[in-house]
């Protein structure tokens, strides 16, 4: 995949009306420190995609602390369900060429957070693109064009009706040579059922477990 291809595709979501937060949290901004930089994230209460969830923070810590094993420098990285963009920001600061994706409604806030925290700090400008799980994936993201070294996902499994579509999306992007890193906090029985399906779909390794937070971080590669 070339950078021009990515930029061309990332422009498509701008044709769709973007969501802007209406109800801000009491703190207004969440502050973090990763990869030698202060990161300020704008959050809101009127969308799940505008809140930083704990597994995203856990995966950020994991990537920073294990950067020699999972070296993102100059790697093509896709985040699905990027939300506020914290994980994509950290991946960018670690040297990756990042495409952050989510549903069209949250792309405005996602792009704003990415730009304010990466401008002038990163080797590559992170891109933002719309991605609705299992929504005509081969047409919008043909596998022959969109190939990634890493696919990142954090707290994308919770109480929603699109878990089958999420697994299809993960399978679509996790091609030979791709490493999928998924972090999730266990909240419901549906999380456990998805984890079982995930482990049956991919070659998986449990990289880290945080019992107190009930968060697990998995590495997966395709079985094909």
Characterization of this structure:
The chain has one domain (3-221): Vaccinia Virus protein VP39 (Rossmann fold, 3-Layer(aba) Sandwich), CATH 3.40.50.150. The model is unreliable at 1-27 (pLDDT under 50). It is α/β, with parallel strands linked by helices and 224 residues long. Helices cover 30% and strands 27% of the residues. A seven-stranded mixed β-sheet has the order 5-4-3-6-7-9-8, with helices on both faces. The chain has a two-stranded antiparallel ribbon with strand order 1-2. The chain has helices at 3-10, 54-65, 86-93, 107-118, 137-140, 163-173, 189-201, and strands at 24-34, 37-44, 76-79, 97-102, 127-130, 150-154, 179-185, 203-210, 215-221.
Largest sheet: 7 strands, mixed
Low-confidence stretches: 1-27
Which value, in Å, is the CA radius of gyration?
A: 16 Å
Instruction: Examine the coordinates and then state which fold CATH places here, giving the name of the CATH topology.
Output: Rossmann fold
Q: Which structural class matches the secondary elements?
A: alpha/beta
Please work out how many helical segments DSSP would assign: 7
In CATH, what is the class? Alpha Beta
CATH-assigned homologous superfamily? Vaccinia Virus protein VP39
Distance between the termini: 21 Å
Question: What is the typical, i.e. mean, pLDDT?
Answer: 86
Number of separate domains: 1
Q: Indicate the CATH architecture.
A: 3-Layer(aba) Sandwich
Within the largest sheet, what's the order of strands? 5-4-3-6-7-9-8
Oligomer: single chain
Principal-axes shape call: globular
Succession of helices and strands: HEEHEHEHEHEHEHEE
Share of helix, binned: 25-40%
Number of strands: 9
